[in-house]
Write a structure and sequence with these properties.
Blueprint lengths: L8 E4 L7 E3 L2 H15 L13 H4 L3 E3 H48 L2 H100 L1 H11 L4
Antiparallel strand pairs: 1-2, 1-3
Helix pairs in contact: 1-4, 3-4, 4-5
Length: about 230
């Protein structure tokens, strides 16, 4: 059983660990309960078969997702092996049934003891095959349930972590918008102050020109003006 409060959940932006955003476990857990209730009657696609999953899993990271992804991979492999085994045993069973049919005809004709013995062995082998097929069918059903459970856990966790990140981003967006507004106001004040200085500078030059003349001001400028 997972101890959610100790699990690491985080968002990694642009595949850069230094741009990692940690989300709050308690908030994620509440969101996950809600998501689970919404999705409980919905059939969900297997995430590992979705190409987009491999993009998102690098951004939305969680110990729960990591563990269940590993579990899901193993279950899918087992499911594949079971399906192959079922096909192979079914083929063997069909071959046994054909042999039983042929030997039954021979036994009815001549009652050969060797044929009877072979027929009995085939019957027993068929019984064993049927038991094997029954066991495989049972395990296939169990694996399907386990796959559905692991896959659902991954999806619910990813949605919950994703929405917690959305909330974190919204809060950050509001904070940044306030800062942008403050900077914009400061920029307007600085711009107004700059224009005021420019006007004063122009007025001073015009006044000085009117008193001593342009040529004298240019000489004074060379001596007292901008020095870089």
């Amino acid at each position: 059983m997972f101890d959610f409060m100790k699990k690491k959940r985080r968002i990694v932006l642009n595949e850069q660990p230094e741009e990692e955003v940690k989300v709050t476990n308690s908030n994620v857990n509440l969101k996950k309960e809600y998501v689970s209730d919404i999705l409980k009657s919905r059939k969900l696609p297997i995430v590992l078969l979705d190409p987009l999953w491999h993009t998102m899993r690098d951004s939305i990271q969680s110990d729960i997702i990591k563990a269940q992804e590993k579990n899901l991979k193993e279950l899918l492999k087992e499911q594949g092996r079971l399906n192959n085994d079922y096909k192979e045993y079914s083929t063997v069973k069909q071959n046994f049934l054909k042999e039983i049919l042929n030997l039954s005809g021979e036994v009815q004709v001549d009652g050969n003891s060797e044929s009877i013995e072979a027929l009995n062995k085939l019957h027993q082998s068929t019984v064993n095959i049927n038991q094997k097929l029954e066991d495989i069918e049972k395990r296939i059903s169990e694996v399907e349930v386990e796959i559905e459970s692991a896959n659902r856990e991954i999806i619910e966790e990813m949605i919950a972590v994703g929405y917690e990140y959305i909330d974190v981003c919204k809060e950050k967006e509001i904070r940044l918008e306030r800062e942008i507004t403050q900077l914009r106001e400061q920029m307007l004040l600085k711009t107004a102050e700059k224009k005021k200085c420019e006007k004063l500078l122009k007025d001073v030059y015009n006044y000085l020109h009117s008193i001593v003349g342009r040529e004298q001001i240019e000489v004074i400028d060379r001596g007292l003006g901008d020095k870089k």
